[in-house]
Amino acid sequence: MKKKIIIIIIIIVILAIISLLLINQSKGFKVEEVYIKNESNQKIYAQIYKPKKSGKVPIIIYSHGLGASYRAGVDYAKELIKYDIATITFDFRGGANKNKSDGSPKDMSFLTEMEDLETVIDYVKDLDFADKEQIIIMGSSQGGAISALVSAKENDIKGTVLLYPALGIPSVVTKWYKSKEDIPESIKMTKKITVGPKYFLDIWDMDVYTEIAKDKKQILILQGTEDDLVSPQHSKKVNDIYENSELFLIKGAGHGFDGKQFDEAIVHIVDYFKKIEIIK
């Protein structure tokens, strides 16, 4: 009896997966789950949203915030795929207490997340449907900070979209602790993630503003006016540092965009993609 129940459950799960794939394909895109291995053979979980259009297409690499997951990029992927733009959204190793990638939050830092994004960029360049001349990196909160830092190093990136980028995090460390020796073994950052000392040690001497100033690409920054985690003033500071950037403040939005605020964000992103000729 138990074996029959197990078999029935397995069949239901398989049918559900097939049904989901068919629904997505009927909407004009396909979703694929992949595991990307880094140089240490650790796995990075990702979902690829691929349009039905034949030939090579632009592709967005979406980086989530601290304690979040690949799901943060799904709504953007579903909207922007309407313009025949693919998206890969992934889980940082140790990016949350629970996610689908390898790694522990106690081993995660800005530097490990930068490595993860660079690994995903290399992976994307080898995808047969991805136009490697039209790769866009996009990130929210800490993922925005990581995207900004990697963008400054990568010449092969066509464009960069920063959603309420938390580039002020490194400056917090010296305010919280007087010396490296004062950093505890465990630090609860949010309900979704507890980090280790590596998180702070890796950014102790990091000057993020000097690094991002090296980026000469056209940058788009979107920021909510009511964000209590990343202030509009901070994003204005970031915008002033860049040589070629544009900042849009989304009225009433907090640390994230929903409803009409999300729709407004999409309008700005689409306009930006037209400017950099991702959308023609």
Topology (elements, then pairings):
Blueprint: H1 2-26, E1 29-37, E2 43-51, E3 57-63, H2 74-80, E4 86-90, H3 110-125, E5 130-140, H4 142-153, E6 159-163, H5 169-176, E7 187-190, E8 193-195, H6 197-201, H7 208-212, E9 219-224, H8 232-241, E10 245-250, H9 259-275
Parallel strand pairs: 3-4, 3-5, 5-6, 6-9, 9-10
Antiparallel strand pairs: 1-2, 2-4, 7-8
Give the overall form.
globular
Proportion of strand residues: 15-25%
Low-confidence stretches: 18-23
Q: Tell me the number of strands.
A: 10
Strand arrangement, largest sheet? Answer: 1-2-4-3-5-6-9-10
Mean pLDDT over the full residue set: 92
Features:
two-stranded antiparallel sheet; 38% helix; globular; 23% strand; alpha/beta
Q: What does it look like?
A:
This protein is of the alpha/beta class. Helix content is 38%, strand content 23%. The protein contains nine helices and ten strands. It has helices at residues 2-26, 74-80, 110-125, 142-153, 169-176, 197-201, 208-212, 232-241, 259-275; strands spanning 29-37, 43-51, 57-63, 86-90, 130-140, 159-163, 187-190, 193-195, 219-224, 245-250. The strands form two sheets. An eight-stranded mixed beta sheet has the order 1-2-4-3-5-6-9-10, sandwiched between helices. A two-stranded antiparallel ribbon has the order 7-8. Helix 8 (232-241) links the parallel strand 9 (219-224) and strand 10. The protein is globular, with a radius of gyration of 19 Å. The chain starts with a helix and ends in a 5-residue tail after the last helix.
